[in-house]
TrEMBL record, chain A:
EC number: 6.2.1.5
Family to which this protein belongs: Belongs to the succinate/malate CoA ligase beta subunit family.
Assembly with partners or alone: Heterotetramer of two alpha and two beta subunits.
GO annotation (BP), single: succinyl-CoA metabolic process
Name of the molecule in the record: Succinate--CoA ligase [ADP-forming] subunit beta
Species this chain originates from: Psychracetigena formicireducens
Reactions listed under catalytic activity: succinate + ATP + CoA = succinyl-CoA + ADP + phosphate; GTP + succinate + CoA = succinyl-CoA + GDP + phosphate
Keywords of the record: ATP-binding, Ligase, Magnesium, Metal-binding, Nucleotide-binding, Tricarboxylic acid cycle
Any one GO molecular function term: ATP binding
Known pathway: Carbohydrate metabolism; tricarboxylic acid cycle; succinate from succinyl-CoA (ligase route): step 1/1
EC primary class: ligase
UniProtKB/TrEMBL annotation, chain B:
Family annotation (InterPro entries): Cit_synth/succinyl-CoA_lig_AS, Citrt_syn/SCS-alpha_CS, CoA-bd, CoA_lig_alpha, NAD(P)-bd_dom_sf, SUCC_ACL_C, Succinyl-CoA_synth-like
Protein name: Succinate--CoA ligase [ADP-forming] subunit alpha
Quaternary assembly: Heterotetramer of two alpha and two beta subunits.
Lineage: Bacteria, Bacillati, Candidatus Lithacetigenota, Candidatus Psychracetigena
Transmembrane annotation, as ranges: none
């Protein structure tokens, strides 16, 4: 779960990380009150869960009250990279003497927390060349002490008080990383303004699997309409831009199914993993959801292991009884209780493929405009 | 021969009295796995499928000489269960549980490394040494003993590919799932080393996916291997920034993409299949030579 900048900064502030003065506004009037309180010049930053806000016009500066009103009126309620801006963070505009980058995350190959820092701040870290990135791996049993921060600071070219300030900042970031089960704690840029280090931006992503032990964190949802609906049903779903809806069982095989459709010239509409051992009910819900997205074809690819093929067949029939499928179904079943499943399907005038490739080819063919199948489904598009 | 487990491995099931734990205990026994004990705190003295249940892993080791453990306990309790197993002296630990917070996984891995424990998972289907023993949840029917080692980051996709191998008459030494989470105990490299040393393994199948950089790291090692490797990478069509089911399957901050993995593997001499069914074709070809 990603947190908005202002929420991340709230958490940073509580930990004692130095930040610009600022406040959150939902209307131009509120923005003006905060601006008067801070004094000019100020920055107005749209609060959306995406990077690159500056380039997209989501960050503005104001030198007087008129500009605050004009800019906050323009930004509030506007769409920024597909997200509606509902809040702006109004902050003092600092004099920037130098920009740094610092983040803490986990390195999945080393299987340890890792601190990344750079003297080339203010740009995406993936655009900074390796020689300018300082990396320090953390032993989770030991944690982060001041010496580690000093060592990074030295490599960033800091000395004296600045070095100590940086070191204390890194300790605070690591404390937050551990305390909140964070995936990412990032300050970019971390700026030197005079003799002070200040976190100009803040990114804070928390592990969804650990949210249960952080009841005080806000619950934020991001994503497309169908992704949110699927999430509410407890399904693992990603919206794509094609027309062949996909349900498979297991993350790897679902990805492989999408790839196969694409390789055969089709366009998958979604990723939907019904789970390794899904029962009739959750699979029926998943299928109904796919049907609601009004695809051209629905492709079901099941390798029966713990998942029983006859359960899949029953889930299909359960949905078929209550709703009309808008699109032709292409079903691939193999493995546990395959014969029972085929019998159940045949009794209901449905058939299934045994081979994943054959089924994928069929799904792609049905989705092609030349297939003559447009409007065959009973639903209105 | 096989790697890590065989028919003599003595297995304790942590969480044996739960729905998943008891179901898979029976399945593992059906496969021939030597299940010697179960552990559920507060249920000591019970039996599940004729297997004695103890309150602690230490007791299961003391009374039944267990040397491997498989964890089926819910995610919030999994860290403690893993610590208990590692601390008690288990040598091979399989964590099937999904949705364990990755900070817990970081601590579990840290302890495993310090105690020299082979930690498989979290979010892994487990491990099967074909014809000998299975610790975990894959279907029993797909495996056939033979000369191919399989190592993977996903479950069902591996069943699909292993099943294809078996149908073509290409059997396996050991099949192992590293786990789909972003932080898991082992990497491809760890298992490739074992397959390289294993006398009966003649070829290796590596099933990777987008996210992280362990396929790239594996490629460096593969260059020094004497045995041929066939690969498949899932996620060619995955958009960046989206988690594709597995916590570890995400292209983020410019890293973890499909292309870099396939290219590094190919450069290391790996025959990379474009579609899953090609894997069995490629392996069968290699073994004929």
């Amino acid at each position: 779960m990603k947190l908005y900048e202002y929420l991340a900064k709230g958490i940073f502030r509580a930990e004692g990380i130095p930040l610009p003065k600022g406040g959150i506004a939902q209307t131009p009037e509120e923005a003006l009150i905060i601006a008067r309180d801070i004094g000019f010049p100020i920055a107005i930053k749209s609060q959306v869960l995406t990077g690159g806000r500056g380039k997209a016009g989501g960050i503005a500066f104001a030198n007087n009250e008129n500009e605050v009103t004009n800019e906050s009126t323009r930004i509030l309620g506007s769409m920024l990279k597909g997200f509606k801006v509902e809040k702006v963070l109004v902050e003092e505009k600092l004099t920037i003497d130098k920009e740094y980058y610092v983040s803490i995350t986990a390195d999945s190959f080393l299987k340890k927390p890792i601190i990344l820092a750079s003297s080339q701040g203010g740009v995406d870290i993936e655009d900074v060349s390796e020689e300018y990135i300082v990396k320090k791996v953390v032993d989770i049993d030991i944690g982060v002490y001041a010496y580690l921060g000093r060592e990074i600071a030295r490599k960033l070219g800091m000395q004296g008080d600045l070095m100590n300030e940086f070191s204390s900042l890194v300790i605070k970031m690591y404390n937050l990383f551990r305390k909140y089960d964070a995936e990412l704690v990032e300050i970019n840029p971390l700026v030197r303004s005079g003799d002070k280090l200040i976190a100009l931006d803040a990114r804070f992503n928390v592990d969804d699997d650990a949210l249960y032990r952080h009841p005080n964190l806000p619950r934020l949802t991001e994503g497309e309409e169908w992704e949110l609906k699927a999430k509410a049903l407890g399904l693992s779903y990603v919206q794509l831009d094609g027309d062949i809806a996909v349900m498979a069982n297991g993350a790897g095989i679902t990805m492989a199914t999408l790839d196969l459709l694409a390789i055969f010239g089709g366009r998958p509409a979604n990723f939907l993993d019904a789970g390794g051992g899904a029962a009739v009910e959750p699979m029926a819900k998943a299928l109904s959801l796919l049907n609601d997205t009004k695809p051209k074809v629905i492709f079901i690819n099941i390798f029966g292991g713990i998942t029983r093929c006859d359960d899949v067949a029953r889930a299909i029939l359960k949905v078929k009884k209550t709703t009309d499928f808008c699109a032709p179904l292409v079903i691939r079943l193999t493995g546990t209780r395959e014969e029972e499943a085929i019998t159940v399907l045949q009794e209901n005038n449905l058939s299934a493929y045994k081979s994943m490739e054959e089924a994928a080819r069929k799904a792609v063919a049905l989705a092609k405009p030349a297939s003559g199948l447009e409007g065959v489904g009973k639903c209105q598009y | 021969m096989s790697i890590l487990i065989n028919k003599n491995t003595r297995v304790v099931v942590q969480g044996i009295t739960g729905k998943q734990g008891s179901f898979h205990t029976k399945e593992m026994m059906n496969y021939g796995t030597n299940i010697v004990a179960g552990v559920t705190p507060g249920r000591g003295g019970m039996e599940v499928e004729g297997i004695p249940v103890f309150d602690t892993v230490a007791e299961a080791i003391e009374k039944q000489q267990a040397d491997a453990s498989v964890i089926f306990v819910p995610a919030p309790l999994a860290k403690e269960a893993a610590f208990e197993a590692i601390g008690a002296g288990i040598k091979v630990l399989v964590i099937v549980t999904e949705h364990i917070p990755f900070h817990d996984a970081l601590q579990i891995v840290d302890y495993s490394v310090k105690k020299n424990v082979v930690q498989i998972g979290p979010n892994s289907f487990g491990i099967c040494s074909a014809g000998q023993a299975k610790i975990g949840i894959p279907p029993n029917s797909i495996f056939t003993p033979g000369p191919v080692g399989v190592v993977s980051r996903s479950g069902t996709l591996t069943y699909e590919i292993v099943s294809n191998l078996s149908l073509r008459g290409v059997g396996q030494t050991t099949c192992l799932g590293l786990g789909g989470d972003s932080v898991v105990g082992l990497s491809f490299v760890d298992i490739l080393r074992l397959f390289e040393k294993d006398n009966e393994t003649r070829a290796v199948v590596l099933i990777g996916e987008i996210g992280g950089r362990q396929e790239e790291e594996a490629s460096i090692y593969i260059k020094s291997m004497t045995k041929p490797v066939v690969g498949y990478i899932a996620g060619k069509s995955a958009p960046p920034g989206k988690r594709m089911g597995h916590a570890g399957a995400i292209i983020e901050r410019g890293a973890g993409g499909f292309k870099s993995k396939v290219e590094s593997l190919k450069q290391a001499g790996v025959k990379v299949a474009e579609i899953p069914s090609q894997v069995a074709d490629y392996v069968a070809d290699l073994l004929k030579r």
